[in-house]
Design brief:
Layout: H1 2-57, E1 68-72, E2 75-80, E3 89-97, E4 104-111, E5 119-121, E6 126-130, E7 135-142, E8 148-154, E9 166-176, E10 182-184, E11 193-206, E12 209-219
Antiparallel strand pairs: 1-2, 2-3, 3-8, 4-7, 5-6, 6-7, 9-10, 9-11, 11-12
Amino acid sequence: MSTHLDIIGSVIIAGMIILNFTVFMGERQESQIESTNKITAQTEMTDITETLRHDLRKVGYGCDSAAILRAEPTLLVFRADLDNNGSIDTVAYAFVEDKASTTSTSTSTTTTTTTTSVTTSEESGTTYYVNDEGNIIEETKVLTPPKYLLYRVVNSRKVPGYDVGLQGMTFKYYESNKYGQLTETTSLAAINAIAVTLRLRSKMQEDGKYQYTVNEFTVTPKNL
């Protein structure tokens, strides 16, 4: 009898050890995903920010005419001697949605004898409605987050758009008064400072959701 109790006790203890190990490994994997997401997002955000800051500080450098050619929320075109070689470069930053992003839809039917009103769930992407036969139709949309591409074009060279996980990129333009205070402006000739807002999405999901990182900074080019 004692032998059987020993065996049962050993099995229970082994089961608890296996369960604890499984939970530990699951938590460790989640922690690794979270850590990877943060490191990747921080690295990519740093790279984008450093490149932008470098280019924006150069706006107007070496120019004897208009420095900024276009200034829009997601498009900036300016002139500057980027390489300090005496040649004026034309630089364009454009942030556009990748039209290849798609949303797929699946539909299933459930028969019911109860009259049901139309219901829509925006969060789940699922819509329910009743057809002429009294069947409830469940339409589920697989919502794929739109993909955006960042273009950095120098002297009209053809370059591919960069998919770095950016979900938002906005430029704002300011002029400064005699007291150094900044106010937003739409006049190209009046621009003294450029503010940038970046919103980056993680490459992988955590708990079924993407993580987002936001960075905001303002550059005041010396040559404006």
